[in-house]
Amino acid sequence: MLKEERHQTILSQVELHNRILLTDVAESLDVSIDTIRRDVKELDAENKLRRVHGGAISLGFTTNNTRNVNIYKQKEKIIIAEKALALLKDGGVIFVDGGTTCLELAQLIPQQIELTCFTHSLPVAMELLTKPNVTVIMIGGQVSRESQTAIGANAIHNLAEIKVDFSFIGTGYVDSHYGLTEFDWDIVQVKKAVIKCSKKTVLLSVSEKLNSQHRYKTCDINAINTLVTELEPENALLNSFRNHDIRIL
Predict the structure, then answer these.
(1) Which residue in 28, 94, 96, 234 is deepest, having the highest Cβ count within 10 Å?
(2) What percent of the chain has pLDDT over 70?
(3) DSSP of 59-126
(4) pLDDT tens across 48-85, in order?
(5) What domains can be seen in the chain, in order of their start residue?
(6) Could you read off the pLDDT of 89-129 as tens digits, one per residue?
(7) What is the phi/psi pair of residue 181, to 5°?
(8) How far is CA 176 from its chain centroid?
């Protein structure tokens, strides 16, 4: 495989999943980790991604500016966020996860709606603070430099003491049979706690992530009450999810 083809594959994967591991890419492309490490270093120098220990993260995932213009599939993520807005009601108590799709939801929350919003995401919290009728409660803990979210025992303990009407979460990978997965063990533990404290869990995911999986399991697909993608609910790509007790928007 030519270097240009490797670079395009790396960029596609990091944009879709926000984060990648060098070992995963090397295995999928059947090249050495050193080769992928050099590729990532070059892409970082070209400001196309950000190199981190053992992998890379997308520029859209790491920016300190909530009004970021480097969002992969932003049009599709806005469609997803607009659909999710229909679930919000005055006086509701919700949790909003980290990640670019959930940030789009936070940005689109109407100014007039009254909500109590829990989040462990710094960018989401900053965006929610611009909503005059939203009470923002930050779930604290060790902050991940990559995801800019609180992780660890303190975050999990805080989540165990609340109950929300809806949690709006993202995922790195989702499969209709295997469920939701990630490659980051710490993030999986926090997501498990989020699902446990939620009356209903809403998964926001671009369709490109459907039928993919990784090593650490967050939950079975039946733990999700509602799946929101940019597709029409009748789209054939969602057929395998219709076999489960999941509302599809």
Answers:
(1) 96
(2) 96
(3) HHHH-S-SS-S--TTHHHHHHHHHHHHTT--TTEEEEE-SSHHHHHHHHHS-TT--EEEEESBHHHHH
(4) 888 888 888 887 665 554 455 567 788 999 999 999 99
(5) 3-57 (1.10.10.10), 74-248 (3.40.50.1360)
(6) 999 999 999 999 999 999 999 999 999 999 999 999 999 99
(7) -140, 160
(8) 17
